[in-house]
Design brief:
- 29% of the residues lie in helices and 26% in strands.
- Strands 3, 4, 5, 6, 7, 14 and 15 form a seven-stranded mixed beta sheet that branches. A six-stranded parallel beta sheet has the order 10-9-8-11-12-13, with helices on both faces. The chain has a two-stranded antiparallel ribbon with strand order 1-2.
- The protein has 325 residues and is α/β, with parallel strands linked by helices.
Length: 325
């Protein structure tokens, strides 16, 4: 098969379409013929040499894919050759084939294009596990999403809207905020021109956000606490703004607030399977009904993954960039 390899870390040009050995499904795994994968920030970090795959995972980038099962390994039940699936991966999505533990598989609902399903597993598993399983967002609460036009942001907006929450988003321009509004965002904040702390307080009569989903990290740490409501929860899932920041514990104590930080890729298989099972139970009915759809910005041939990474680096996209195998 062919896969995107990274002979040496670097810029987008470090991604090389290479001929490699086919994967073989192990106990409890299936082999998926990949139709599409999707680009995530973690792939950029891997390309740059900052985010190695977890032990035992494929060395190739790609944390999600969609395709059809072409072989089943020993001990597999409930899945068959020919099934249309999408999958959460520890790596290997940027390839023509990938071996996947069955606990990380999801069926592709009728009415959803197979390739488009590649834009769902990583974002919905991240959002559901952080916003709902950990931060326990409730109906009527306010969720502040940093990066509202990202793949994570567009999925979080749709899920929170379905849950009856009020949604605030930050994004870097009027066009992106318009797209966020179309998806259900109620409070639109242009972070290039507005202070999100002031805006969220003004929109909530001084209360602040009950839950904050943060992809920025250190740069926003203290300001997120300022923007937080009493008994609020901050879920940190990214570090685009750095890894080290100063925290006023007194301010956090006064808010009776909580800060959690999680990653998904390196979690044990059992934890990933539990998240995928929860997504299948709670999120997949929304996908089947059409209330949740992946927002696809563009499709790029997988062999041209460097082009897709340049588009992600440019930051002008809304939603997901797919790689077509």
């Amino acid at each position: 098969m062919h896969a995107i390899t990274i002979p040496e870390p670097g810029g987008p040009e470090a991604l090389v379409w290479s001929e490699v050995a086919d994967p073989v499904p192990a106990e409890g795994e299936v082999l998926v013929d990949v139709v599409a994968s999707a680009v995530n920030r973690a792939d950029v970090l891997q390309r740059q040499g900052f985010y190695d795959p977890p032990p035992g995972a494929s060395p190739y980038p790609g944390l999600e894919c969609a395709g059809r099962i072409s072989a089943v390994g020993p001990g597999v039940s409930g899945w068959a050759v020919g099934d249309a699936v999408c999958a959460l991966l520890g790596g290997g999505g940027y390839a023509e084939k990938v071996a996947v533990p069955t606990g990380q598989l999801l069926p592709v609902p009728d009415g959803l294009e197979l390739a488009d399903a590649a834009g769902l597993p990583e974002v919905v598993c991240t959002v559901w596990s952080n916003v709902f399983m950990i931060a326990h967002l409730r109906p009527g609460e306010t969720l502040l999403i940093h990066g509202g036009a990202s793949g994570i942001g567009t999925a979080a907006t749709q899920l929170a809207k379905s849950a009856g929450a009020r949604i605030a988003v930050t994004a870097g321009g009027a066009d992106k905020l318009t797209r966020c509004k179309e998806l259900g965002a109620d409070i639109l904040i242009n972070y290039r021109e507005q202070d999100f702390v002031e805006e969220i307080k003004a929109a909530t009569d001084g209360k602040g956000a009950d839950v904050i989903l943060d992809i920025i990290g250190a740069k926003y740490l203290s300001r997120n606490v300022d923007a937080l409501a009493v008994n609020g929860r901050i879920a940190v899932i990214g570090m685009q703004g750095g890894t080290k920041g100063e925290l006023n514990l007194g301010a956090l104590l006064a808010k009776r607030g909580a800060i959690t930080a999680t990653s998904l890729r390196a979690r044990p298989a059992a934890e990933k399977a539990a998240i995928v099972a929860a997504v299948r139970e709670h999120v997949w009915p929304l996908v089947a009904s059409g209330d949740l759809r992946p927002v696809i910005d563009q499709r790029v041939a997988m062999r041209d993954a460097a082009e897709a990474h340049r588009a992600l680096d440019a930051g002008s996209h809304v939603g997901k960039i797919l790689l077509m195998a």
